[in-house]
Amino acid sequence: ISSKLLTRFFHLQRPCLAAEKSLLATLRKKTGYTFANCKKALEMHNNDLNKAEEWLKQQAQSLGWAKATKLEGRQTSQGLVAVTVNNKDAALVEVNCETDFVARNKEFHKIVEEAATSCLAYVQKQPEVKEVVTKIYLDAEQLKNLPASDGKSLADHLALMIGTVGENASLKRAFCVKVQNDVHLTGYVHPSGSNSSVLLGKIGGLLALKQLVSKDVDLEKVGKDLCQHVVGMNPKKVGTSLDAPSKDKENEICLIHQEYLLDDNVTVREVLDENQLEIVDFKRFECGEDTNQSVDQPLEFIETCQ
């Protein structure tokens, strides 16, 4: 009799065990955490999947902050630049890490994309501009305090990523821009290859373009080509008619006087004249470059172009 009872007992227990295995597989797939940690989380919360997942996230966040504190100070010279444009608002962001290996990691890509998205959300909340272009610069500390899409700070997301990849990383700088309705914004990164709303590369640029007269021009294509030129040729300023072209064409710093990247038989000025366009402004970030410039202005600092 006892043998039959035991057989029946174990037979009845199998569905429960199967359910636990199913939950374990679901939790592992959803979170990416180890078998042992997922099993522990489910056991601690009576197989409540939601509570187990939340507990795992809290543990990962704590471990991430501990790891981030331990690695703080280690040089971060690699990384990525992100560009995102949404109609009349755009953001250009740099996030750094220690090695190019981590810069190719999907978890690192996620934090770079999150930073760019958060910066775009920030500039979208700013009042409508009276100037042609309004530019906002954010430094590392200001970036850390920005809220991400889930309400947590970017600093929290960064710490979580550091805990995952085991390497130091830093939010370096951001440039946000808002333009008037008659100005076209475009972005470009190199190397290119992403079709998402956030472009990732080693060098990135934003360009604000304006039509001088009504003309049938593909602003998106021309703007992208000109932004590609900015990324590739690294001009220091747009330039005006008062700026004389440099005798040394290779080291020309004025954008309008540079030989056009996509056709060196013409200058950027000639491309603009042909299409009746004006470059209002541009910004270029190169990962790892010296930033002893205006990007460290405080959050309240807003630069405008009349």
Uncertain ranges: 5-19, 294-306
- Please tell me what the overall shape is: elongated
Mean of all residue-level pLDDT scores:
87
CATH topology call of the largest domain: Tetrahydropterin Synthase, Chain A
* Tally of individual helices: 9
State which percent range the strand residues make up: 25-35%
Strand order of the largest sheet: 6-1-2-4-3-11
How is the quaternary structure best described? single chain
Measure the end-to-end span. 93 Å
| Largest sheet entry | 6 strands, antiparallel
Structural class: alpha+beta
Q: What is the β-strand count?
A: 11
Strand-helix topology:
Elements lengths: L1 H30 L3 H10 L4 H23 L6 E9 L2 E9 L2 H4 L2 H19 L8 E6 L1 H6 L8 H12 L3 E11 L3 E8 L7 E4 L1 E9 L7 H15 L25 E2 L2 E5 H8 L1 E10 L15 E4 L1
Antiparallel strand pairs: 1-2, 1-6, 2-4, 3-4, 3-11, 5-7, 7-10, 8-9
GO molecular function: translation elongation factor activity
Family: Belongs to the EF-Ts family.
InterPro entries: EF-Ts_dimer_sf (IPR036402), Transl_elong_EFTs/EF1B (IPR001816), Transl_elong_EFTs/EF1B_dimer (IPR014039), Transl_elong_Ts_CS (IPR018101), UBA-like_sf (IPR009060)
Describe this structure as you would to a colleague.
The chain has 306 residues and is α+β, with helices and mostly antiparallel strands. It has two domains: 20-71, Ubiquitin-associated (UBA) domain (Helicase, Ruva Protein, domain 3, Orthogonal Bundle), CATH 1.10.8.10; 78-305, Tetrahydropterin Synthase, Chain A (2-Layer Sandwich). It is 42% helix and 25% strand. It has nine helices and eleven strands. The chain has helices at 2-31, 35-44, 49-71, 100-103, 106-124, 140-145, 154-165, 219-233, 268-275, and strands at 78-86, 89-97, 133-138, 169-179, 183-190, 198-201, 203-211, 259-260, 263-267, 277-286, 302-305. The chain has a six-stranded antiparallel β-sheet. Strands 5-7-10 form a three-stranded antiparallel β-sheet. The chain has a two-stranded antiparallel sheet with strand order 8-9. Strand 1 and strand 2 form a beta hairpin. Helix 5 runs antiparallel to helix 7. The longest helix has 30 residues, at 2-31. One of its GO terms (cellular component) is mitochondrion. One of its GO terms (biological process) is mitochondrial translational elongation. Keywords: Elongation factor, Mitochondrion, Protein biosynthesis, Transit peptide. It comes from Asbolus verrucosus (Desert ironclad beetle). This is Elongation factor Ts.
